[in-house]
Amino acid sequence: MSFIRKLTEKAKETFKKSTNSSTVEGSRSNIRESDVAPPPLPSKSKTSASAPPPAAGRSSVQTRKVLVKGDKHATIKKKRYDLSDFHIDRTLGTGSFGRVHLVRLKSTGNFYAMKVLIKHEVVKMKQVEHTINERDILMRLDYPFLVELLGTMQDASNLYFVLEFVQGGELFTFLRRSGRFRNNVALFYAGEVILAFEYLHNRDIIYRDLKPENLLIDSEGHIKITDFGFAKEVPDVTWTLCGTPDYLAPEIIQSKGYGRAVDWWALGILIYEMIAGHPPFYDDDHFKLYEKILACKPKFPSHFDPNAKDLNGVEDIKRHAWFGDLDWQALEDCQIPAPYLPPCGKDGDASNFDVYDENHEPYGGPGPDPHKISLGTFKNWEGMSRGYGLEGTSFSILV
């Protein structure tokens, strides 16, 4: 009996027993559209695609489930909060436009992750549309394997995303420490990504930036996809040139119109990287890298499961032989035990994340804001996700 089938049967047995019990009540760098103008092919980015990026060059939102849902004993309150209500702690990650902090809500002691984007940098790098798309898309999402946005706010200099905090760190870190994953481990993580993509694609949302750096592991070992900076609602096709070089689909490189298929291509790259320990196509020269992608002749290591070599479309993938023993409903319900549980201490323990210099400007200071007042770029930024938007520089959180 396979690992996944054993886990599924064990989970079903445990779940059945629990329901019958009387005690149960219920970094690699990205290619952005502003970097190049296709054609020709994108120019080199700052980080070589042939090796893992330096830790300081990665940018991720670290998350953990914090909203109370479906608990009849919980008291749900809605209250306005602003920046002064949070204690800003250490940096969890950095990026081109800002950084991510661990923060604590002073009134409750609950921990969150706060993604801070510098307005000037967002405008200079022509990422206003992507940033607004990220906010708008995150507000629509509610799925176990996707990062949850609680609210957004701004001051004269910065934009703020307040998100759940996950203690387990990046899949990238776990993969590099392991070298490569066993087949069953890669299958588990790939399965959760597939379900997340199915959820997004059913809402016409393409993710466009899949890679181990953007997959977080929660305290129970499940995936959380984060960083929706390149996500976009695409009912048919789009031509935007963006993504991470190793993971770009051929149609993106060729400046052709593309749709959700580029996410399935990226899934194939992810599966290969998890099983082999490195992506299938890599080169210090990005032009040579793109030539290898277009030629599409990856070399499979001898230990590679033959069934993991060809995957297409969500329904074909879910019925594929490689996933033959996987109970998709049990996986979606998080009833299959994860193959790895990250070492997590008490709430607010950020030991699974790299340590960064805290050399950032103070947040929340007064001053002119041309990007809101004069240009109106971020005029309607503030609010809580999924229909709880509020005017002003504060938002509501369910606690």
Short description, anyone?
The chain is an alpha+beta fold and 399 residues long. The chain has helices at 3-20, 119-124, 128-140, 171-178, 183-201, 250-253, 261-276, 286-295, 314-318, 328-332, 370-374; strands at 78-81, 86-94, 98-105, 111-118, 149-154, 158-163, 205-206, 215-217, 223-225, 232-233, 383-384, 395-398. It folds into two domains: 56-167 and 347-398, Phosphorylase Kinase, domain 1; 171-332, Orthogonal Bundle (Transferase(Phosphotransferase), domain 1).
Layout of SSEs?
Layout: H1 3-20, E1 78-81, E2 86-94, E3 98-105, E4 111-118, H2 119-124, H3 128-140, E5 149-154, E6 158-163, H4 171-178, H5 183-201, E7 205-206, E8 215-217, E9 223-225, E10 232-233, H6 250-253, H7 261-276, H8 286-295, H9 314-318, H10 328-332, H11 370-374, E11 383-384, E12 395-398
Antiparallel strand pairs: 1-12, 2-3, 3-4, 4-6, 5-6, 5-11, 7-10, 8-9
Helix pairs in contact: 5-7
Overview of the molecule:
The chain has a six-stranded antiparallel β-sheet. It has 399 residues and is an alpha+beta fold. It folds into two domains: 164 residues, Phosphorylase Kinase, domain 1, CATH 3.30.200.20; 162 residues, Transferase(Phosphotransferase), domain 1. The C terminus is likely disordered. It is globular. It comes from Rhizoclosmatium globosum. It catalyses: L-threonyl-[protein] + ATP = O-phospho-L-threonyl-[protein] + ADP + H(+); L-seryl-[protein] + ATP = O-phospho-L-seryl-[protein] + ADP + H(+). InterPro entries: AGC-kinase_C, Kinase-like_dom_sf, Prot_kinase_dom, Protein_kinase_ATP_BS, Ser/Thr_kinase_AS. Its EC number is 2.7.11.11.
